[in-house]
Amino acid sequence: MPVESVFPRLEALLPHVQKPIQYVGGELNSTVKDWDACDVRWALMYPDAYEVGLPNQGVMILYEVLNEREGVLAERTYSVWPDLEALMREHQVPQFTVDAHRPVKAFDVFGLSFSTELGYTNMLTALDLAGIPLEAKDRTIDDPIVLAGGHAAFNPEPIADFIDCAVIGDGEQAVLDITAIIRAWKAEGRPGGRDEVLLRLAKTGGVYVPRFYDVEYLPDGRIARVVANQGAPWRVSKHTVMDLDEWPYPKQPLVPLAETVHERMSVEIFRGCTRGCRFCQAGMITRPVRERSITGIGEMVERGLKATGFEEVGLLSLSSADHTEIGDIAKGLADRYTEDKIGLSLPSTRVDAFNIDLANELTRNGRRSGLTFAPEGGSERIRKVINKMVSEEDLIRTVATAYGNGWRQVKLYFMCGLPTETDEDVLQIGEMAKNVIQKGREVTGQNDIRCTVSIGGFVPKPHTPFQWAPQLSAEATDARLAKLRDSIRGDRKYGKNIGFRYHDGKPGIVEGLLSRGDRRIGAVIRAVYEDGGRFDGWREHFSYDRWMTAAEKGLAGTGVDVDWYTTRERTYEEVLPWDHLDSGLDKDWLWEDWQDALEEVEVDDCRWTPCFECGVCPQMDTKIQIGPTGKKLLPLTVVNS
Length: 641
Ligand code: SF4
Prior knowledge:
Strand order of the largest sheet: 2-1-3-4-5
CATH superfamily of the domain at 6-237: Cobalamin-binding domain
Radius of gyration: 25 Å
Shape: globular
Number of helices: 21
Largest sheet: 5 strands, parallel
Bound molecules: iron/sulfur cluster
Strand content: 5-15%
CATH architecture of the domain at 6-237: 3-Layer(aba) Sandwich
CATH topology of the domain at 6-237: Rossmann fold
Low-confidence stretches: none
Mean pLDDT: 94
CATH class of the domain at 6-237: Alpha Beta
Number of strands: 18
Structural class: alpha/beta
Helix content: 25-40%
């Protein structure tokens, strides 16, 4: 049975909303497949507005991987702005996909990718608009399977009530395996209903189905144990795609119709990071390092540019300058696209891996904007605690070379509230900025040197050595940052040349609550949603008071509260809500690394030293995959010219 497009009903509403273009679909490289020619259908959502969701690589990759397969279709859906939400409710238009404007409820799977926990309330809005019951236990055979993925899914417990299942790790192969299971179950006439298909998924050991896990609590509120029921495996493993060259996606990147956060094409040059920064969840959960080959990158850039017409290429990864062949990649691409004036960018740059030659290559064909470095911690001591192995001397040396090469702007990223941090550690941020400016003045002989410091609050994350750490309260974070601000502003010699950007501590506490929360947090999320909570990742929509009121209501009678989840330090013995989700990292290794942090002991990058047994490689039957391949990115020769 064909599914009716809701577009005729939607179209009438569009003149009354902001940026209607974001809802119309038809982007270059988007795909609409015949509904009836497919037997497994996915609606993929990045639970944020179009401008943030469309460039998301995870969704774009899965969209293409699924649509390439015969008999499978995937369409995209994004969060609608509150103005359209109100009209959709009034006119009973359901949550729709932008590709063919089909109602999300008609699909087999509703897959959501969560990069951050602050998208949880947007998921509830979408479920409700779609006409899908908010809680998994109330769904019937006619509802899609609601599946969560993305980095935040490494602890899906706070949303356990709302999702049917979660997948941790790389999605490319996983979505195909899940498709095969659903296809077989449908072909057999859907025996046993939802429970049966979910059990089949759970039994693979790679799909987490919360309903097959019972959580028992101790009288003091901690978790006593998590027990699998109905024969589900006791732990669920993450998925790891080993050879990135085998997955050269997106091949045909989507070109947005409306303005988005990134107006460029992105190519992921490697996945994973083994530098071991202790605060970095992405680095820990995406191990081991897997590089895409220089020739594979060259082909993706070439094909992507042809398919899109973009004029800038972002070379993505957690620390792009770390690719073993980054110099050749940058030079090769800059050479190849000199004529076309294609700009290149590395969104993430480490102080120590950075070299100015590389920056010069990257900006050869394009704009030279400011340089960005992330020392993360102000003092030498705190950088040892977080294992950010970079000294102030390294930074100053790099910056001096940059100024010598004509750069004039430096941006520095830091965090506030790191474990063991004192006011003194944070005040050092100001000192570092002053030293950077002083060096710039020396090297250039000019006074108009600027340095911007940007500071975010630290949130301890699951599957990292800091998962046991107490989070700094919002008040203490604000007080510490106020001291830093006063010391910078009060400095006559440098104060005017230092830009100071920071976030207050409140959103970090909510993120902390959601990051390390357990199933009891579901009631809080629901209460926030019901009170009108939407777009919590957006400063102008976020309401701390709403979250605190909801937490009081949602956690009433449980004996635990927001502080218990955030500012409390955990012990080695405590069962953590995500212990049954296996990121491959050995819990004892993480604990030892936490102890090393407290003793300010640094740990090397295992790419260049012998393995220090974090557990990932043997457990996942994977290994670090790095070059150099010794290959070069040759200029393209024009065929038949
Ligand atoms: S198992 Fe060893 S080589 Fe593999 S990521 Fe961990 S420390 Fe590195």
